[in-house]
UniProtKB/TrEMBL annotation:
InterPro entries, per the entry: DegV, DegV_C, DegV_domain_contain
PANTHER family: DEGV DOMAIN-CONTAINING PROTEIN DR_1986-RELATED (PTHR33434), FATTY ACID-BINDING PROTEIN TM_1468 (PTHR33434:SF2)
Protein's UniProt name: DegV family protein
Organism: Paratractidigestivibacter faecalis
Record-linked Pfam families: DegV
């Protein structure tokens, strides 16, 4: 067994069951629904959206607090005192989580960390593939593993089409002017992570199926890419026809396999119902 434990936020959208199978520790982010606050992943996203609808509110999110990381770091250190921890972080410019982890790591020389500059399955891709690499190379040092993971993060491409721009606007991630223009023109913007920030990069028009394929083409045209696997992520309400079209187009783009993930409460709160995203890396230079 390796003496390294990988830690990430629930905002990576890695399911708890898969995290447990791969030995990944997930630290909860948080969602507020009216006056109530829950840990990310404790409520089915469709149920969360329904509660918001009944209350007439939009969900609000918050990152992990230092105490959230302290509890996880303490538990790992108590159970495996010789283990080192590699924290693979959610984009630091979008949430307080990274700073919270740095605060919790003070005085702990066994904690290593870096900012992926990605969110949802862009981060999740790095976390999962790093866990698989660690499983295949249990002898790897913490420094070598972090360098491998940072290289992968630097090559990641992740973009999404929000299902409802109102959720991005409510979360402060889309200006009112951009929201109004996109709504009036029935535009579906591609949102990408650029320097860790959510940035609208291209405007698409049409039905969600055509826009989903347009997103995939846009990401593929950014240069040569690793065709081993593409990760898809969907939020509650994405039509099955869109999912089937995305799988077919992935094969047309040369991908050997694909994996589907579902947004949990935090990411659903940002993108709304019926959103679609893709993540895959460029080739190693």
């Amino acid at each position: 067994m390796s003496d390294i434990v990988i830690v990430a936020e629930t905002g990576s959208d890695i399911p708890a069951s898969e995290a447990a199978e791969l030995g990944i520790e997930l630290v909860p982010m948080h969602v507020s629904i009216g006056d109530a606050t829950i840990d990310d992943g404790t409520l089915d996203p469709a149920e969360m959206l329904e509660q918001c609808r009944q209350l007439g509110v939009l969900p609000r999110t918050s990152g992990c607090m230092p105490i959230d990381f302290q509890r996880v770091f303490d538990r790992i250190h108590e159970q495996r005192p010789e283990a080192k921890i590699l924290y693979i972080a959610y984009s630091a410019v979008t949430t307080c989580s990274y700073e919270s982890a740095r605060t919790a790591a003070e005085g702990r020389d066994y904690v290593y960390s870096f900012d992926t500059t990605h969110v949802t399955i862009g981060q999740g891709f790095v976390v999962r593939e790093t866990a698989l690499y660690l499983r295949e190379h249990p002898e790897v040092s913490i420094e070598e593993l972090m360098a491998w993971s940072e290289d992968l993060a630097g090559r990641m491409r992740m973009g999404f089409i929000p299902g409802d721009l109102g959720y991005l606007r409510a979360g402060g991630r889309l200006s009112n002017a951009a929201f109004l223009g996109a709504t009036l023109l029935r535009i579906k913007p591609i949102i990408e992570l650029i320097d860790g920030k959510l940035t609208a990069t291209k405007k698409l028009r049409g039905k969600m199926e055509a826009c989903a394929l347009g997103l995939m083409d846009h990401m593929a045209l950014q240069g040569d890419y690793d065709t081993s696997v593409i990760y898809f992520v969907r939020s509650s309400g994405l039509p099955l026809s869109v999912q089937q079209a995305a799988e077919k187009h992935a094969r047309e783009l040369g991908f050997e396999s694909f994996r589907w993930y579902d947004t949990q409460d935090v990411i659903t709160s940002h993108c709304g119902p019926g959103s679609f995203a893709v993540a895959f890396p460029g080739i190693r230079k």
